[in-house]
Design brief:
Layout lengths: L16 E5 L2 E9 L5 E7 L6 E5 L2 H23 L3 H14 L6 H15 L2 H14 L8 H14 L4 H17 L9 H10 L4 H20 L26 H10 L5 H10 L3 H6 L5 E2 L4 E4 L10 E4 L2 H7 L14 H15 L7 H14 L2 H8 L3 H8 L5 H7 L20
Antiparallel strand pairs: 1-2, 2-3, 3-4, 5-6, 6-7
Length: 421
């Protein structure tokens, strides 16, 4: 007869099982699978709602249940010891999250995971803004099409012809270089394009400025999510030496200028008018009898009316044109600058940018010793005139400058010059 066994019978596990830690308790379930094996599920209430987590083995399920029980117990301890202020913070956080239908624990877990990636809350916020911008709905439109639309809007808003020509020239080249949708242009591509042009600092600044304008326009109309030009290198144009023509040079230029361009040349040299103002000027604005030039607000760069005294020698250069009507310069903007270069080449004088206006300002300040008065004639501030044009030329050269007249030799000074001052 076989002796009875002394081994304690193995206790059969009862399902579902409870795993406890402190006063917290987590339930583990065993489920039959279709293939006849068992799977295990753990009830997770950490977010406030029941969520079942699946595990392939009993051991992994029990480990997870132990972890949850411990976390729940620790959380309950913290909750039991919360101060009124901490409880208020909790309530405020829950209230802030309510519109998004997410729980505080889930949110805290997500934020913690994101902080591991980006480091701190400001970076997390910046990353979210970047994501939102990149995923904002935009309309696909080619860069060249945006350029065309921008130019039309500017023209409809009565932008000056010179400004439109400048925009058209610079942005047409930009559109040709970027044969793609505006929303796909990157900062690196714009920077590479600017660098490849091998521009002077001033030209770089000008091209960057109009490109920035283009993408501000594109963003406002949802053709792009952001402005890629904003983060490109922003150079600062330094102060440049003021270039002036000598009395001998202006005489050569006047002698070789075409009959249609000669009045424009004289107005720049002896009235200090900007090229854009001359292009908009009409013969009726030249009051030869009243010995003045009226630059209307619609023709001045600063949109402010001003009156320029008509120097004696300028009156003589303009006298042959007294019967003309219409625009002083009837050609195009490009033809105007072509005439400048042609006069310089014919005279053997290197053309200097803005030198006519600089010359007038410099010689006029030397002649009158009155920066405020000259500023009014130029449409500038007295501070600018004093800073850039004071003591730049000698009084004797100023007298020679305003004595350059048809048929007069360079060394002849018609007196009294002060009568036109």
């Amino acid at each position: 007869m076989k002796a009875p066994s002394t081994r304690t019978p193995r206790k059969t596990a009862v399902w579902p099982r409870k795993v406890s830690f402190g006063r917290a308790e987590v339930t583990v379930y065993r489920r039959h699978r279709a293939d006849g094996s068992f799977g295990f599920e753990v009830a997770n209430y950490a977010s406030g709602k029941r969520r079942l987590e699946s595990f392939p083995t009993e051991a992994t399920a029990l480990d997870r249940a132990s972890q949850l029980a411990r976390q729940t117990s620790e959380r309950d301890v913290v909750a039991a010891t919360m101060t009124n202020g901490q409880a208020a913070d909790y309530a405020s956080a829950v209230q802030a999250l309510a519109p998004f239908n997410v729980t505080l624990p889930d949110t805290a877990g997500t934020v913690a995971a994101c902080l591991k990636l980006v480091g701190d809350l400001p970076n997390l916020h910046a990353a979210a803004k970047f994501y939102a911008a990149r995923h904002k709905k935009t309309e696909r439109k080619r860069v060249a099409e945006v350029v065309t639309e921008l130019l039309k809007v500017k023209a409809d808003r009565k932008a000056s012809p010179r400004y439109l020509d400048d925009l058209r020239s610079r942005l047409t080249r930009f559109g040709e270089a970027f044969a793609k949708d505006a929303g796909d242009v990157t900062t690196a591509e714009v920077q590479a394009w600017l660098d490849s042009q091998r521009l002077s600092v001033q030209s770089y600044v000008n091209n960057r400025r109009v490109a920035h304008l283009l993408f501000e326009f594109a963003v406002a109309r949802a053709y792009a999510t952001d402005n890629p030009v904003a983060a490109t290198e922003n150079l600062k144009a330094g102060s440049r030496d003021i270039a002036v023509f000598s009395p001998g040079e202006i005489r050569k230029l006047l002698a070789t200028a075409s009959p249609d361009f000669l009045p424009c040349l004289a107005l720049g040299a002896f009235a200090g008018m900007r090229s854009a103002e001359i292009e908009r000027l009409e013969w009726s604005d030249l009051r030869l009898g009243e010995r003045c030039i009226v630059v209307g607000a619609s023709k001045a760069k600063t949109a402010s009316r001003r009156v320029i005294p008509l120097a004696d020698n300028l009156a003589l250069w303009l006298a042959p044109y007294a019967s003309r009507t219409g625009l002083v310069w009837a050609g195009t903007h490009e033809a105007f600058y072509g005439a400048q270069q042609a006069a310089g080449e014919a005279a053997g004088v290197k053309w200097k940018a803005n030198a006519l206006r600089h010359s007038y300002a410099s010689y006029r300040v030397a002649l009158t010793n009155d920066a405020g008065r000259v500023a009014g004639e130029l449409g500038n501030s007295a501070v600018v005139v004093h800073r850039h044009y004071r003591e730049l030329v000698k009084l004797a050269d100023a007298e020679r400058w305003f004595s350059v007249r048809p048929g007069a030799a360079d060394n002849v000074i018609a007196m009294p010059v002060a009568a036109s001052a």
